[in-house]
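Quick start: read one record
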Amino acid sequence: MHQEEEREESKLTPLIPPDTFLNIFEAGDPGTVEHKVVEAQQRYQDTLEQWEKTIPIEKTEEPGRTTWRDKEG
C-alpha cells in the first residue's frame, strides 16, 4: 500500500464507532417527521382507505394508531 493510499483510507475510518451514540429520538416521538406523517394519516384516514384501492400502499394497525406504508417498503 502506498503512503497516499494509507492516508486516504484513514480519512474514511470514523473516529468514534456508531454504537457509541445513543438514539435519543424514537421514530414516533413528537417533532419527528414520521410523527407528523402519522398525525396526517390519522386526520385523512378516509382518503388513505380510498387510495389503498388504487395505489400500492398497505394499512398497518398497531395499538393506538393505524398507518399506511408503500408496499415496497
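DSSP finds three helices and two strands in the chain.
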